[in-house]
Write a structure and sequence with these properties.
With 76 residues, this protein is an alpha+beta fold. The chain has two domains: 43 residues, Macrophage Migration Inhibitory Factor, CATH 3.30.429; 29 residues, no CATH class. The chain is 38% helix and 16% strand. It contains two helices and two strands; from the N terminus they run E-H-E-H. The chain is globular. The relative contact order is 0.20. GO terms for molecular function: intramolecular oxidoreductase activity, interconverting keto- and enol-groups. Pfam families: Tautomerase.
Length: 76
């Protein structure tokens, strides 16, 4: 039962967020064979000024054992 949490900066419309969530759910279902009813996706909006402390440090720098795709930036 995969649950995906997407953290992004504010500014996306509800339609864009729904499109992102559906695309991610489809990718999960295709790559980790599971039923659609088993997949959930949530989206958390993080302001640019909070990004480093709320996302980059704990999830990217602090999560090397769980991070499978590194970003191409270094805000520090």
């Amino acid at each position: 039962m995969p649950h995906v949490i997407i953290k992004l900066q504010p500014g996306k419309s509800e339609h864009q967020k729904e499109t992102i969530a559906e695309a991610v759910a489809q990718a999960v279902m295709a790559s980790a064979p599971c039923a659609e009813r088993a997949v959930s996706v949530s989206i958390e909006e993080i302001t640019p000024e909070d990004w480093v402390e709320a996302v980059y440090k704990p999830d990217i720098l602090g999560g090397p054992g769980t991070l499978y795709k590194r970003p191409g930036y270094d805000p520090l």
